[in-house]
Here is the input.
Amino acid sequence: MKNKLIKGSPSVFKGEITPPGDKSISHRAIMIGSLAEGKTKVSGFLNGGDTLCTVDAFRKLGIDIKVSNTNVVIEGKGLHGLGEPNEIIDAGNSGTTTRLITGLLAAQNFNSEITGDKYLQKRPMARIVEPLTKMGADITGRDNNNLLPLKIRGRKLKGIKYEVPVASAQVKSCLILAGLFADGVTEIIEPQKTRDHTERMLAHFGANLDINGNNIKVQNPDQFQSSELIVPSDISSAAFFIVAALINPGSELLIRNVGLNPERTGVLDILKLMGANILIENERIDCGEPVGDIVAKYSDLKGIEIKGKLIPKAIDELPIVSVAACFAEGKTVISEAKELRVKETDRIKAMVTELKKLGADIEELPDGMIVNGSEKLKGAKCSSWGDHRIAMSIAVAATRAKGETAIEDSGCVAISFPEFFDLLERLRT
Ligand code: S3P
Here is the structure.
């Protein structure tokens, strides 16, 4: 799919959807299921570009994984069941695949190599290579061991105490997975709490970590048992439809079965602070993760300041929050979010550039952006920058613009939300 055309306003979104499975949880289901002893059945799996790279990687490591739509069966071989791959592991566009798997591979008794697409090859890996090297790992890559491809010579690792310099669930999870194999205790201290899906899933499989606030201690669990897993819908995907409903007059959407992990719900906190009419219903716990249904209605939004603890809790949703800010009254300032510059693309530059094309009053900051809400966007020719979340954010903005918008290179939505454009059409009355 190349150029996608999105009709402009008026758009009214009505009805209900169940977005695809959570990307972070789906990756971890494959990884942890592969390390468990026995058969793990997963339902609600995200059958998307990123998570299929993780499936492919574990197949190359000798694990039998059957994927049928959103159901997956993993024949886990236990903690010491991975085998040397015959080929280079290709993580595609997926930072989560790369960073988490590298933690595992560093501790195996075989060598391996991992690479990715042209976007992933630009993303920083020193944040995992440095602490893994302190644990005794032998990993080399371009740019002084910072860039893919990474060559990993498996070694026996030792536990360390490590203060993670950036708030990153990928770095934390990489070290937790390495710590499962290391001698002694691996102690990880986070500067701010980040999504804890790895910790929750390991506990669900019977491998409990010692967690005290932002401090996590991991030890070799000897083994852990397979389990059934139900993956909730991805709040990061739900966020596009929540904002579509909030900014288009007359809209109301029910979004079912959404993962509400407290380290992921920053987008709801932010939108509520902006005055959004959002209700959570049917709250429950599934396989150790909080889940619920979300009702979002058209709302009069106002600009706010977004920084501090809200940033890691909403890191993937800040592009769509910047779209909501375009339709809010007054000024929205997003700061302390320079991590956005090292995502699938530089998401600060991408959103500022593309929203400007649509006529938004928006300005780049070194660590965020300033948006003056105006409600007067007009259709334009935009680019996705090859980034799924930029493509979907622009598409949502386009539904409230005057006239049609074309989005170049829109096929990248398949990374996390293959049916996004079909649903956008279907829910529009
Ligand atoms: C993820 C962590 C976040 C997030 C990414 C998924 C994860 O990345 O942006 O989409 O599954 O652990 P960082 O750890 O780099 O913040």
In short: The chain has a mean pLDDT of 97.
